Every structure is written in C-alpha cells, then in structure tokens.
Amino acid sequence: MLHYIPQDGVRLAVQQAGAGYPILCLHGHPGSGNSMSVFTRHLSQRFQTLAPDLRGYGQSTVTRSFKMADHLDDLAAILDHFQISRCLVLGWSLGGILAMELALRHPDRISGLILLGTAARPRSSHPPVNWQDNLLTGIASIINKANPGWDWNIELFGKRSLYRYLLQQHTATAYQYLADEGMPAYLQTSREAQQALSTALRSRYNRLADLPTIACPALVLAGADDRHITPESSWETAQKLQQCEWQCYPNVAHLFPWEIPQQLLEDIDRWIATFPSTVGS
Known about the structure:
- The chain is an alpha/beta fold.
- It has two domains: 216 residues, 3-Layer(aba) Sandwich (Rossmann fold); 55 residues, no CATH class.
- The protein is built from eleven helices and eight strands.
C-alpha cells in the first residue's frame, strides 16, 4: 500500500507491506522505495516493511534545495505517522548512512541495523567516467528496459558500460532488477537530491568516532568488488560498532543484493534469528 505523508512542504511517498514488527528499508542514490523490493517482498511475509522514497527521490518530489540532515527529520516523521516507537532499519548504500545517523540521533527507536554496501567513512575506488562510459550505459539501459536480461545486450553493451563497476555477476536476474527498478529510480532522482549528496561528500563525511555509541546489534554486508563504497571502508565501519557481524561476499559489487538475492536473504534471516531482540522478540 502506498501512503503519502506531508512533511515540511514535501509529500513523502512510503510503501507499506505486511504486518508485525516494523522494518524501515532505506534505498541508496539513485534509488526509490521500489528498489528495495528485493528485501520487502521477502521480509513483509513476516514483518511490516516501510520503504519510503527519500526526499527528492521517486515520488517524493521537492521544489527547493535541502540538506542530508532533512532526510532524518523525514524518517522520524514517517515513524511518528505510523505510530512506530521502535524498529529495525535496513539501509543500502546512502540508506545505510542514514540508518546509522538515525541510530545516533534516536537510539531508543532503533532495535537493530542491517547495513549493505555502506560505510561511516565512505571511500570509492571508482575510475573516472568518460563520455563513452555514459553512452554505452545509456544504450545498455534503453535496450535492457525493452528486453530485460537479453544476453546479446549484456555482452555487447552491459559489460562495457558503467554496469561493469556496479555488477560482477551479469545475470538475467540482476538486469531484470535494473530494468524494473534501477532505471526508473535513476530517472526520478532530482537535481536537488544530487546536490545534497554532492555537498555531503565534499565535506568528507566521517562518523567513525561516533559509532561505538550505537549499542544495538548490527549486520554489515559488503561486496568484495564494490568500487562505489569499498569493502575496506565497510569493514572499518563494522569494526567500530559494538555488536556487529560482518560478511563480505566474493565476486559481487555494489548491486550485490541484485546479484545474489537468495543467499543475501538467507543470511539476513539467520542474523535476525540470532538476534531476535532486533524484531521485538
């Protein structure tokens, strides 16, 4: 079910599914609540999932510039709207950074953190992007939208485009996610959202020193070939969290939830069973 929540002149779109203990699912950049379906379809069978379009993304449109901190006000407003006093937060990439910030700002409201492809001091090893990268990515995306997972397109354009840094396993499943959720999210990401993220990155964001104050259990997952947020920076984050389990998957990159969804969901289920307090049990 899609909800629209007014907040500070913005209408926040939030997808709600399932029933039970709440899990807040936060997407990355570019992204939307839809791009978290790999998690919400599975988790909503046992829990209530909330997947918002962050301010400036998806259907949560903006008309003025904003700061990254505004996302935290929005997330608190979403929890208030659904009368949620405590929840588990799952965040991918930028969503993971916001999840950590939410736990630092509202420790009593966060029962656990699942952090994917993210870091409190994010570092990249992504090579410079040239015009050919952008051209081939555009061609690959358009063809993939029309014919998702087509081997010819993957081999000729996908593996030569920027997807070669986002994926290691160029499977039909991963390209289906790109067609259904990746490309629409990219097109719906606002200039204001891009500016807010760029400003935060230029400030050399680093919250490592504050992480030991987060007491709730955490699961940090990374892809060994992630060029956007390196596994080394994710490992550095995991080392600073009090109760943290760490796992790094081989032969996957930043979009690893779309590369190895079944293995990932099994590991999340196992972690939740190990730490039942994260879901109120």
